[in-house]
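Justification of computing resources. Each target in the renewal requires a structure prediction run like the one illustrated here; the chain below, 257 residues long, is used simply to show the kind of job we budget for.
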Amino acid sequence: MKVKNILVSQPKPADFEKSPYSELSRKFNVNIDFEKFISIEGISAKEFRMNKQSLNGHTAVILTSRHAVDHFFRIAKELRYEIPPSMKYFCISEATAYYLQKYIQYRKRKTFFGKQKFADLMDVIRKHPEEKFFVPSSDIHKQAMFDMLDKEKINYSRGIIYKTVAANLSHVDINSYDLLVFFSPAGIESLKQNFPDFEQGEKLIGAFGPTTTKAVKDAGLRLDIAAPTKTAPSMTMAIEQYLEKEAKERRRRSRNK
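Resulting structure tokens:
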């Protein structure tokens, strides 16, 4: 099957021309569209309280994304909780730390950050055993992060302040695509909700990460392209390898005619 149209279940890169997807499109003459399959909704202050969660008593907050930053300050405002000036912020990356300037005056003495992975941030967190951390998260979050905190006996409490829901994809003609690419189990769930009669047939499905791979199989779908692998650490590289293999197979069949 020749792949002509690809749908990636993520927002379009800000600078598409400089992204790996642009190179992929040019090299194999394929059309690549982007569509958010999931959206983020904030948990209300009422629901936050009903879940017996609280911001009180924490001296530090762990922020793993811009969503976490936005919703932490949103829920604090809705709860009428005045964040103390002494609050310390531990961010997954320097970019996330700088994003804090949207809400606070950035000060190095109370802002700390890792290199991008949570394991790197843990190296920083370990140096502050006296803090009581609040960890804003979604209803769907990687358990590995909390396992690391538990292993190090970090004093923290998790607060679910936003949730992942299926986006409205009624405008998408799912049958016009030859390859669908997913990056989270929530994306697969969105596919099922938006297209309950979806039948894969010859359509290809690509998935990034073990949990997404499992979600594809659990949904009764066929997984055709998986990443990361030793030879394809990124999704675009895995797609490129598949398309190259497909092109070679077409040339071989053409010679044998």
